[in-house]
């Protein structure tokens, strides 16, 4: 099962390597990981996507909580959370495919951020499933380069989630 | 008044109640050692290798229950501590390790004797700190000790650059610390505890499975009280030995790979397993799928990651075992039948266990022609003080000590269980003796492991530490040889030590006394003489070379599939 886990950590040197080291040392998967400071600059928030059965996910959250610099861990349930990621994609666009790329970009409300006679570079934001649907449509047209932020996640509703 | 960082560090140690430290000087701690020169409140012991210094601090911590402290210089000094730190980490031993570091301005420059010790020790410390500003030093030290000794204990490393030792600031030692990401759950949940006691009282075949957590929590007395109150037999892990007196009729001794027949049978047939401060290690469970197959499992542990890591648990209780056991006792009195009734209810189960005890007691085949290692262990028990402390190294001799010594008090067995570090025993005994100058301290070593830290004979003699060293000499890396005998057709690849060492001369070269027994009749004589001789004594016993540690559950087999002694 895919899980998106948010980890609130002290914004201190070495914290990211503690988190990453935990995953590599214990053989847990990381599909993606993003990190940046929060509105409280003493804190950073990591969003990571991992996979595993119930027992593994339980160990992952417990092990994360055990790190001294980790303040909070939330394993978000999909229905209670909103996930977004951003991708930048460079696609070949020559002759007839130029129009097709733009049509797809339009459908997914992606922005064209760079144009050459041979390519378009698109910026798209959205739920991971939506973004990957766009990428799959672009792939046969000649996907040259893809870069993604990986998802970030926030809980639904008025309740905020601070340190 | 302003103090320099080096002095502040020592003031912090003093305020944490530290009276003995083990350390080795070098360029990046020379300022610290200069302060130490005139700082009389702390005894500093100079080991002959930083690894041994850390093991000594570890042995000191295991024996006394206090936080062990070790110092090393940057680079090679720091990297030499790794095995010691990893050993303590695996067994959850509270320690603070202080390493020197190159000046802050040079960090990252591949400076002389620079090593990224924070990076290197990240996976084998509970936490570590790099002190970048002398103003943070006192708070970091307070945090280091707090983290090391609370919750699930463990080693904490503080990396102290040379310029921070020289820089000056006002010294204030904080009264308390607040770490928002670190709030160990000490108090067990009352509802869970009530549920657990009710469940336990329903059981017809309960077993208590005790681990090192009971010793770390200083909860042996509470354990005995609960076990007696409920009438339940107790088995312990290697790390739990001594938490429950092995001379008690309800003691089942060690369980697991080299555990007793009756402990492994009891665990395999019980309907209720109460795990207290134990972590279901693979040496204990054997094949997970057939471990305690009929049992409901209650698991008490201060570290949530220990719970449900390897086995399913029916009722978890997160908390300090001492707190939980005290509450269990209260609940038992409130809701349950009295102790007599509990005992009566379990009589058939106890009878079943007694049958197993009778059928296959812990035993070995005595010999008249050659010294059996198990016999030496039994005689050591018989001829030593009741409160003697026994350190072990790692190998067959370690298992024989665990099986045949008969531990009756907590903190009397000091052994590297989790990492299984050869070379641990001698320095650990040295640390324990430094903590208890007046108690009898011995170490049981193999001929192999002894040689991994034998340079510490010098430290022991120099500091007049009265350690009694027992070498069970089979001239083999015996434990590995046993596996080669059983699973590799006796192909003894690199396990025969070939070179016979004159251990008596070796002891004498360091200024210790050396004794040797080669015949069964000499065993008592040597032990008596060894214990009666003042100062460090090395007692070498030439033992049966191809003796095996039995029972043995082959790796990956179920606990019931034991290879037995007879
Ligand atoms: C050659 C060799 C053979 C071995 N064979 C065996 C064998 O046959 N049988 C055996 O048992 N072991 C054996 N061992 C040792 C084994 O490897 C493990 O070290 C041992 O089984 C672990 O013991 P434990 O479960 O008590 O855990 P420990 O490592 O002692 O862990 C303690 C547990 O208690 C918890 N804890 C700590 N403090 C507290 C507190 N205050 N309150 C609550 N919980 C707390 C911790 O979180 C942890 O989960 C062998 C080792 C070697 C080297
Ligand atoms: C540092 C280290 N290296 C290797 C091992 C693997 N090992 C475990 S027991 C053992 C043999 C120990 O031999 P000895 O000290 O003579 O004790 P014996 O088993 O003969 O009693 C070895 C090599 C280890 N545990 N630790
Ligand atoms: Mg040997």
From TrEMBL, chain A:
Domain named ACT: residues? 4-78
Q: Which UniProt keywords apply?
A: Amino-acid biosynthesis, Branched-chain amino acid biosynthesis, Transferase
- The stretch of residues making up the signal peptide is none
Q: Which domain of life is it from?
A: Bacteria
UniProt xrefs under Pfam families? ACT_AHAS_ss (PF22629), ALS_ss_C (PF10369)
The GO terms this record gives for MF are: acetolactate synthase activity
Listed pathway(s): Amino-acid biosynthesis; L-valine biosynthesis; L-valine from pyruvate: step 1/4; Amino-acid biosynthesis; L-isoleucine biosynthesis; L-isoleucine from 2-oxobutanoate: step 1/4
The EC number(s) this enzyme carries = 2.2.1.6
* Catalysed conversion reaction: 2 pyruvate + H(+) = (2S)-2-acetolactate + CO2
Entries under Gene3D superfamilies matching the protein: 3.30.70.260, ACT-like. Chain A, domain 2
Q: Which family does it belong to?
A: Belongs to the acetolactate synthase small subunit family.
Explain the purpose of this protein. Catalyzes the conversion of 2 pyruvate molecules into acetolactate in the first common step of the biosynthetic pathway of the branched-amino acids such as leucine, isoleucine, and valine.
What interactions and quaternary structure are annotated?
Dimer of large and small chains.
* Name of the protein in question: Acetolactate synthase small subunit
| Source species of the chain | Geomonas propionica
């Amino acid at each position: 099962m895919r899980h998106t886990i948010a980890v609130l950590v002290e914004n201190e040197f070495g914290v990211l390597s503690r988190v990453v080291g935990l995953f590599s040392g214990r053989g847990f998967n990381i599909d993606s990981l993003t990190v940046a400071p929060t509105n409280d600059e003493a804190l950073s928030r990591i969003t990571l996507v991992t996979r595993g059965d119930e027992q593994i996910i339980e160990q992952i959250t417990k092990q994360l909580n055990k790190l001294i610099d980790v303040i909070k861990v939330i394993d978000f349930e999909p229905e209670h959370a909103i996930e977004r990621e951003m991708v930048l994609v460079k696609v070949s666009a020559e002759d007839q495919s130029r129009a097709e790329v733009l049509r797809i970009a339009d459908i997914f409300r992606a922005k064209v951020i760079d144009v050459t006679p041979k390519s378009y570079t698109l910026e798209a934001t959205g739920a991971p499933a939506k973004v990957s649907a766009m990428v799959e449509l672009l792939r046969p047209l000649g996907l040259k380069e893809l870069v993604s932020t990986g998802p970030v996640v926030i809980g639904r509703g008025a309740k905020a989630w601070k340190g | 008044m302003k103090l320099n960082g080096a002095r502040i560090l020592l003031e912090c140690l003093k305020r944490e109640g530290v009276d003995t430290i083990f350390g080795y000087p070098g360029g990046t701690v020379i300022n610290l050692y200069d302060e130490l020169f005139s700082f009389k409140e702390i005894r500093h012991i100079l080991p002959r290798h930083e690894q041994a210094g850390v093991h000594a601090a570890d042995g000191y911590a295991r024996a006394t229950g206090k936080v062990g402290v070790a110092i090393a210089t940057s680079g090679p000094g720091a990297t030499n501590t790794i095995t010691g730190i990893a050993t303590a980490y695996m067994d959850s031993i509270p320690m603070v390790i202080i390493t020197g570091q190159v000046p802050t301005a040079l960090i990252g420059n591949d400076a002389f004797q620079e090593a990224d010790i924070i990076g290197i020790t990240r996976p084998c410390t509970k936490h570590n700190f790099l002190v970048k500003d002398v103003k943070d030093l006192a708070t970091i030290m307070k945090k280091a000790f707090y983290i090391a000794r609370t919750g699930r204990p463990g080693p904490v490393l503080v990396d102290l650059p040379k310029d921070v030792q020289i820089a000056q600031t006002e010294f204030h030692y904080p009264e308390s610390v607040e770490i928002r990401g670190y709030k160990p759950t000490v108090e067990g949940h009352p509802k869970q505890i009530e549920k657990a006691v009710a469940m336990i009282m329903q059981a017809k075949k309960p077993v208590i499975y005790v681990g090192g957590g009971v010793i770390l929590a200083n909860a042996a007395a509470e354990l005995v009280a609960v076990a007696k109150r409920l009438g339940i037999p107790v088995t312990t892990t290697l790390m739990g030995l001594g938490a429950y007196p092995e001379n008690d009729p309800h003691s089942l001794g060690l369980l697991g790979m080299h555990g007793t027949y009756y402990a492994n049978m009891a665990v395999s047939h019980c309907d209720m397993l109460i795990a207290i401060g134990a972590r279901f290690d693979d040496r204990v469970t054997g094949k997970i799928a057939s471990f305690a197959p009929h049992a409901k499992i209650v698991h008490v542990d201060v570290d949530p990651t220990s719970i449900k890591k390897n086995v399913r648990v029916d009722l978890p209780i997160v908390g300090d075992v001492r707190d939980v056991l005290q509450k269990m006792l209260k609940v038992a009195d409130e809701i349950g039948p009295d102790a007599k009734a509990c005992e009566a209810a379990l009589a058939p189960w106890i009878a079943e266990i007694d049958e197993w005890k009778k059928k296959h007691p812990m035993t070995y085949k005595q010999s008249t022609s050659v010294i059996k290692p198990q016999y030496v262990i039994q005689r050591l028990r018989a001829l030593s003080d009741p409160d003697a402390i026994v350190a072990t190294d790692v190998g067959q001799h370690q298992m024989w000590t665990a099986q045949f010594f008969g531990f009756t008090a907590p903190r009397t067995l000091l052994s590297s269980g989790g990492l299984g570090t050869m070379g641990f025993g001698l320095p650990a005994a040295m640390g324990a003796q430094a903590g208890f100058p007046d108690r009898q301290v011995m170490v049981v070593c193999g001929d192999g492991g002894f040689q991994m830290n034998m340079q510490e004979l010098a430290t022991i003699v120099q500091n007049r530490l009265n350690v009694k060293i027992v070498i069970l000499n089979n001239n083999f890396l015996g434990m590995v040889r046993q596996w080669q005998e059983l699973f590799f057709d006796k192909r003894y690849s690199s396990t025969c030590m070939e070179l016979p060492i004159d251990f008596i001369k070796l002891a004498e070269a360091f200024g210790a006394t050396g004794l040797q027994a080669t015949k069964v009749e000499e065993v008592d004589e040597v032990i008596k003489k060894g214990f009666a001789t003042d100062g460090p004594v090395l007692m070498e016993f030439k033992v049966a070379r191809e003796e095996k540690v039995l029972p043995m559950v082959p790796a990956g087999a179920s606990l019931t599939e034991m290879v037995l002694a007879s």
